[in-house]
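Before a colleague's protein record goes any further, I have to sign it off. Thanks in advance; the entry in question is below:
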Amino acid sequence: MTTLLDDFLSGDRSRVIHALWQTIGSRDPRELDPLVAALPRIRRKAGALDLGGMIYSNNGHLEHALTKIEQYRDGKCWCAAYPGILTNDPRKEEAAGHIVIRSTSEPGWSMTYLCECTVCGQEFDVEQGDHHFTWWNWVPRGRKRRRGEV
Protein backbone atom coordinates (compact mmCIF):
# COMPACT_ATOMS: atom_id res chain seq x y z
CA MET A 1 0.00 0.00 0.00
CA THR A 2 1.34 3.41 -0.99
CA THR A 3 1.64 6.03 1.75
CA LEU A 4 1.60 9.81 1.54
CA LEU A 5 5.32 9.75 2.25
CA ASP A 6 5.86 7.44 -0.74
CA ASP A 7 3.85 9.85 -2.89
CA PHE A 8 5.74 12.94 -1.69
CA LEU A 9 9.10 11.27 -2.38
CA SER A 10 8.10 9.64 -5.68
CA GLY A 11 9.26 12.44 -7.98
CA ASP A 12 5.96 11.98 -9.84
CA ARG A 13 4.09 15.27 -10.16
CA SER A 14 0.58 13.76 -9.98
CA ARG A 15 1.45 11.67 -6.90
CA VAL A 16 2.95 14.69 -5.12
CA ILE A 17 -0.14 16.77 -5.92
CA HIS A 18 -2.33 13.96 -4.54
CA ALA A 19 -0.21 13.82 -1.37
CA LEU A 20 -0.26 17.54 -0.78
CA TRP A 21 -4.06 17.75 -1.02
CA GLN A 22 -4.46 14.70 1.24
CA THR A 23 -2.14 16.37 3.76
CA ILE A 24 -3.97 19.70 3.60
CA GLY A 25 -7.27 17.93 4.28
CA SER A 26 -6.04 15.47 6.90
CA ARG A 27 -6.44 15.53 10.66
CA ASP A 28 -5.27 11.94 11.02
CA PRO A 29 -2.08 11.49 13.08
CA ARG A 30 -1.50 8.11 11.37
CA GLU A 31 -1.12 9.97 8.06
CA LEU A 32 0.76 12.98 9.40
CA ASP A 33 3.19 11.41 11.91
CA PRO A 34 5.38 9.74 9.24
CA LEU A 35 5.60 13.06 7.37
CA VAL A 36 6.99 14.97 10.37
CA ALA A 37 10.26 13.02 10.54
CA ALA A 38 10.62 13.08 6.76
CA LEU A 39 9.92 16.80 6.34
CA PRO A 40 13.48 17.74 5.24
CA ARG A 41 13.47 14.93 2.64
CA ILE A 42 10.01 15.92 1.42
CA ARG A 43 11.13 19.55 1.07
CA ARG A 44 14.17 18.53 -0.98
CA LYS A 45 12.50 15.97 -3.22
CA ALA A 46 9.00 17.40 -3.77
CA GLY A 47 10.17 21.01 -3.56
CA ALA A 48 12.47 20.47 -6.55
CA LEU A 49 9.51 19.68 -8.83
CA ASP A 50 7.54 22.13 -10.94
CA LEU A 51 4.01 21.14 -9.95
CA GLY A 52 2.30 23.47 -12.41
CA GLY A 53 -1.10 24.99 -11.75
CA MET A 54 -3.39 27.19 -13.81
CA ILE A 55 -4.92 29.76 -11.47
CA TYR A 56 -2.71 29.17 -8.44
CA SER A 57 0.68 27.47 -8.29
CA ASN A 58 0.60 23.91 -6.99
CA ASN A 59 4.03 24.64 -5.52
CA GLY A 60 2.23 27.19 -3.31
CA HIS A 61 -0.15 24.43 -2.23
CA LEU A 62 2.84 22.20 -1.53
CA GLU A 63 4.33 24.90 0.71
CA HIS A 64 1.00 25.14 2.55
CA ALA A 65 0.96 21.35 3.08
CA LEU A 66 4.51 21.47 4.45
CA THR A 67 3.58 24.35 6.75
CA LYS A 68 0.65 22.29 8.01
CA ILE A 69 3.03 19.41 8.82
CA GLU A 70 5.26 21.87 10.75
CA GLN A 71 2.25 23.24 12.64
CA TYR A 72 1.14 19.71 13.49
CA ARG A 73 4.68 18.87 14.66
CA ASP A 74 4.70 22.00 16.84
CA GLY A 75 1.37 21.10 18.49
CA LYS A 76 -0.65 23.92 16.95
CA CYS A 77 -4.40 23.56 16.55
CA TRP A 78 -5.73 22.26 13.24
CA CYS A 79 -7.26 25.67 12.58
CA ALA A 80 -3.78 27.23 12.28
CA ALA A 81 -3.75 25.85 8.72
CA TYR A 82 -6.80 27.85 7.55
CA PRO A 83 -5.00 31.12 6.72
CA GLY A 84 -2.87 31.01 3.61
CA ILE A 85 -5.02 28.77 1.43
CA LEU A 86 -8.25 29.72 -0.30
CA THR A 87 -9.99 26.31 -0.43
CA ASN A 88 -11.53 25.89 3.05
CA ASP A 89 -15.27 26.35 2.64
CA PRO A 90 -16.72 27.32 6.06
CA ARG A 91 -19.93 25.37 5.37
CA LYS A 92 -17.97 22.16 4.73
CA GLU A 93 -15.75 22.78 7.76
CA GLU A 94 -18.86 23.25 9.92
CA ALA A 95 -20.50 20.09 8.50
CA ALA A 96 -17.32 18.18 9.46
CA GLY A 97 -17.55 19.56 13.02
CA HIS A 98 -14.31 21.54 12.71
CA ILE A 99 -15.82 25.01 13.17
CA VAL A 100 -19.07 26.72 14.08
CA ILE A 101 -20.35 29.54 11.89
CA ARG A 102 -21.41 32.26 14.36
CA SER A 103 -22.77 34.73 11.80
CA THR A 104 -22.78 35.59 8.11
CA SER A 105 -23.44 38.60 5.95
CA GLU A 106 -26.23 38.49 3.39
CA PRO A 107 -25.81 35.36 1.24
CA GLY A 108 -24.25 35.85 -2.19
CA TRP A 109 -21.10 35.28 -4.19
CA SER A 110 -19.25 37.76 -2.02
CA MET A 111 -20.02 37.43 1.67
CA THR A 112 -18.37 37.15 5.07
CA TYR A 113 -18.53 34.64 7.91
CA LEU A 114 -17.57 34.77 11.57
CA CYS A 115 -16.32 31.28 12.43
CA GLU A 116 -15.04 29.65 15.62
CA CYS A 117 -12.81 26.59 15.87
CA THR A 118 -14.49 23.79 17.83
CA VAL A 119 -11.12 22.64 19.21
CA CYS A 120 -9.48 25.81 20.56
CA GLY A 121 -12.09 28.56 20.20
CA GLN A 122 -10.02 30.68 17.78
CA GLU A 123 -12.33 33.00 15.84
CA PHE A 124 -11.87 33.86 12.18
CA ASP A 125 -13.25 36.49 9.86
CA VAL A 126 -13.73 34.67 6.59
CA GLU A 127 -14.23 36.53 3.33
CA GLN A 128 -15.82 34.60 0.48
CA GLY A 129 -15.15 35.77 -3.05
CA ASP A 130 -15.43 34.57 -6.60
CA HIS A 131 -12.99 34.90 -9.48
CA HIS A 132 -12.82 31.83 -11.74
CA PHE A 133 -13.67 29.81 -8.60
CA THR A 134 -15.19 30.47 -5.18
CA TRP A 135 -12.52 31.12 -2.55
CA TRP A 136 -12.39 31.81 1.20
CA ASN A 137 -9.79 33.95 2.98
CA TRP A 138 -9.47 33.11 6.70
CA VAL A 139 -8.13 35.82 9.03
CA PRO A 140 -7.71 35.09 12.77
CA ARG A 141 -9.43 37.46 15.21
CA GLY A 142 -8.04 38.38 18.62
CA ARG A 143 -6.54 35.66 20.78
CA LYS A 144 -7.40 32.02 21.25
CA ARG A 145 -9.09 30.76 24.37
CA ARG A 146 -6.74 28.80 26.56
CA ARG A 147 -7.67 25.30 27.72
CA GLY A 148 -10.20 25.47 30.50
CA GLU A 149 -11.31 29.03 29.69
CA VAL A 150 -14.96 29.66 29.00
